[in-house]
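Hey, I'm writing a tutorial for new members on how sequence and structure tokens pair up, and I'd like a real worked example in the thread rather than a made-up one. If someone can provide the structure for the chain below, I'll link this post from the tutorial.
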Amino acid sequence: MAGLKLVFFGTPDFAVPTLAALLEAGHDIVAVYSQPPRPAGRGKALRKSPVHDFAEGHDLPVFTPKSLKKPDEIARLSALGADAGVVVAFGQILPKAVLDAPRLGCFNVHASLLPRWRGAAPIHRAVMAGDKETGITIMQMDEGLDTGPMLLDERLAISEEDTTLSLHDPLADMGARLMVQALDDVEHNRLQPRPQPTEGVTYAAKIDKAESRIDWSRDAHEIAAMVRGLYPFPGATTTMNGERLKILVARPVERTGDALAGEVLDGGMTIACGRGALEILRIQREGRAAMDIADFLRGHRLEQGQRLGHDKSGVQG
């Protein structure tokens, strides 16, 4: 049996496995929409998105409009005669006219267990909040921000070692598999959409670089979750003698005695927090390669009572 005629909307690496799975399942991808090429690297040359590259490599037509709200863009999309739209981390809010253009509507792969973590950065926010699980929800899209009825979902445990990076690929692969299943079920009327619960709604706002600065007065477990959630980008940061440091790997540990938040507790890099302490295991100086803490300490002598995130007078910097 021939597959569905699909329009695919996606941009980053996270979306590529779903596009690949749809092709493998025999669906007819009549168009791929992605964000326009953007300057990248030191030379600021225009770089196509991962979805754009993948689509061109498979001879799929690619469109990169800055907005899908213009009448001519909506007319072009409608003329495709698609059965359904599939949306995975596209990067634009789709207007109602676009959502309604395909015969069956548009379906979304969302990397959380809705209604928790609606929005742009669900994986980051789940890890940063110390959640014990996350997952994928396949949703039929409406005009709201990730508010549409749910079709399928699947859970994934979050360990104390997991980072945004380590969860990325398993969730992307899970989303690809569930979307193929959902489209098959929708085509054969085997799914009954479920409204999202009205309780438990949280929002996963886009990560702002300003959030990366560590507040050492917080609980060590909270800071460790922040480090994991912001890895690999933008990274959790602090300062030492005015130099910016990115904390890549760290773990919470117990401590005894009195110490100021941010104070170095030993000859290594165990740092006092508002509650408990954080043992830093891997670090990166600005403009330098990442290194294990033993290598870092060979070139940096730490003074007794030195505080991260403060200058020598004790003023937070």
